[in-house]
Amino acid sequence: LKKLDQAVSAAHTFFVANPQHLQMREDIEKYRRMSGVKSDNFRDLEATPHWEAYEAGVQHYDADEYPQAVARLEESLTETLSALEECRALCEGPLEDEEEEEEEMQPGLYEAIAAHYIQVLKCRQQCVLEIATKPGRISATEDFIPSHLDLLQFAYDQVGNQALAAECAASYLLFYPTDEPMLEKMKQYRTELGEDTAVTARESIQHYVQRSLMEKKLIYYAVEHLGGTFNDPDLWTPDELIPDNLKEKHREDQEKQKQEARDVEEIEKRGPLPFDGIAVTMDSRQMNGTQRVVFDRVLTESECKDLLRLTKAAGEAGDGYRARRSPHTPHERFEGLTVLKAMQLAQSGDVDWRDAKLLLQASEKSLKIIESYFTPGKKLHFSFTHLVCRTAIDEEQEGRMDLSHPVHADNCLLDPEGQECWREPPAYVYRDYSGILYLNDDFQGGGLFFTEMDTVTVTAEVHPKCGRLVAFSSGKENPHGVWAVSRGRRCAIALWYTHSREHAEQERVKAEELMKQRAVKQDRSDGERPGAGHSGRSSSDSPVPNSGARPTSRRHQPGSDRTQHPKELRARDEF
Questions:
Q1: Which of 471, 493, 516 is the last residue of a domain?
Q2: Is the domain of 296 the same as that of 429?
Q3: Which end of the chain has less Cβ packing within 10 Å, N or C?
Q4: Residues 363 and 506 in one domain
Q5: Separation CA 423–CA 126 (nearest Å)
Q6: What DSSP element (H or E) covers 228?
Q7: Are 137 and 177 within one domain?
């Protein structure tokens, strides 16, 4: 309809809520290049006043611009409380499913009044989640109102207004009266202001807390005596408010959560690393998640260069390794080499045998490290091994907004809206652990990042460099993606592992068979030469030093002559 301003604002609104949507990223880029489009056209049609003010206030706060932060956060708090009242008013109305209940249960007058009133109270309680959820998102920000007060007390303190800082601290303590850091701050403010100065919480916050506690008390009474359930939206609800018979269930739920945490901790209990010199740079706690770890010094600089030489030689050989457009973004070219293809190229003389062998050794070393760290005593098998390079297309980087690889999980289908990850085909449901062994860092972008289930909230980032191995469990607890490679070429060995022997990587068996055949052939050749050594190994076939590691090997399994033809073993590129 040639209404560009409306088209752009609609696209921008959708994109804000769905930043991983590749087609919309392309549309946004197209609009930015159009001469008739102004920067003002990129507006979020679903933005609410309190969220706009809150995000602006947090940006000022993070930039240490405290006067501006105070103004915008105060504006946000006022708008938040106003939006809360509007939401609560909309809870009034007829009883939901009244006709069905009347047909099935036919409650008496008192029961009907109670059911209707409790429904309204529950609806009002849930309003805090509605206003704490950014438009377009599905997850609410925890402690949205208390977080305003926490930020404000610090910002006021920084601008030298201790009176308002103390007021905000007192207001925050209405939610968390035993919070030690805030109690310490209150003690400090009282000292600075003088013991005779009265410090009270804000009246609006007192009203909010008192009303909310009264409603919770009524709802819990109804649940206890009339049945039903209540999902309390607040983390700050006092324990004494919950009836004793419901506390038991509450305790059971908490104990279950603790047990799950203990189970995860047990899974993550480190076994001894099988190689010297390797450092654990970040563990799960530092990466704000579960079953995540970063190792450094897995490869030496020399080994990284040898593997990069393998990618270059394979590219020059052409067959099976020609760069093509990435399946995930039109702005990058993609090259991938399996262990079997590397051995076949070595067999035909296109790449050095030592480099192809190093690919096997490096991936095997990574498996031993990950197995000993995450699953000591429980064997892991290779599921798929892929030497992958991503190269930025120079002429297509301007205005780029997409990812090199969208956020996903490795063994389930991620559903951000439903906060679920469905472990069913076509996902690789048999994969248990994943790893990436980086070979270089002379490029821009290309870092790995982890998110919450919403695919938007970033919880940790890993920057590539030679010899760095990042490993993690493959399930819904570790959604991850790759930032765009905006310049240069990023190379890494992508690794997936499984506990299931049936899903072990058959290409690796065939590759090891080719390596074994090569070793036997070399032994015979050396034995026929006068003065050959007893070792039967040529200097060109000696193992490449591996960072002081104890050597590892995989024996050829009987029956490998029944290995499928490599053409039947194609796997989808993932990294």
A1: 516
A2: yes
A3: N
A4: yes
A5: 31
A6: none
A7: yes
Shared-domain flag, residues 250 and 285:
no
Signed CA dihedral, 294, 297, 301, 306: sign only:
negative
Residue 175 resides in a domain: yes
The reply to whether 565 falls in a domain is: no
Which of these is catalytic: 490, 508, 537, 570? 490
- Same domain for 283 and 246, yes or no, is no
Domain end call among 516, 532, 563? 516
| CB 463, CB 502: distance < 8 Å | no
Is 415 inside any structural domain?
yes
Is the overall model pTM greater than 0.90, yes or no?
Answer: no
Query: Is 490 labeled as catalytic in the residue annotation?
Result: yes
Q: Report yes or no on 401 lying in a domain.
A: yes
User: What count of other Cβ atoms lies within 10 Å of the Cβ of residue 40?
Assistant: 9
Same domain, 490 and 362: yes
CA distance 164 to 167: 5
- 349 and 245 in a common domain: no
Contact 385, 495 (CB under 8 A): yes
Domain of residue 199, residue span? 90-97+108-254
- Number of domains the chain contains: 3
With CA atoms as reference, report the closest residue to 339 among 307, 317, 370: 307
Say if residue 356 is in the same domain as residue 391. Answer: yes
Cis-peptide, bond into residue 238, ω within 30° of zero: no
Phi-psi region of 508 (alpha: psi -120 to 50; beta: other; left: phi over 0): alpha
